[in-house]
Amino acid sequence: MSASAAVITAAAVALVAGYLVGRVRPWQRLGDWAEDQVRFTGAWVRGGRVRQGVAPLAALVKARQQAKEAAPA
Fewer Cβ atoms within 10 Å of its own Cβ: the N or the C terminal residue of the chain? Predict the structure, then answer.
């Protein structure tokens, strides 16, 4: 392969890669994901320490109740 053919091949690959990145738009998908995280976790963050403390306690109570139900009588 000659040098000019290598340059043409590299340019074609770069053009195709640029086209595909433009079509997929990963930065926009990442931005949408970040926006969803802020939208759906905003209440959790604003809920503060009380909500973050109650959630594990509720999970613990539920787990203990399930363990009692599953225990042989």
Answer: C
Tokens of 48: 């503060």
Q: What share of the chain is helix, strand, coil (3-state, %, to 5)?
A: 90, 0, 10
Spatial distance between the Cα atoms of 32 and 23, rounded to a whole number of angstroms: 16
Distances (CA, A) of 25 to 13, 28, 48: 18, 5, 35
Six token digits for residue 54? 């109650």
Between vectors from CA 39 to CA 37 and to CA 45, what angle results, nearest 5°? Answer: 80
The reported pLDDT for the residue numbered 68 is 84
The pLDDT-based confidence of 73 (bands split at 50, 70, 90) is: low
pLDDT digits 0-9 by tens, 5-63: 999 999 999 999 988 888 877 778 777 877 777 777 665 556 667 777 788 888 889 88
Domain that holds residue 48: 3-70
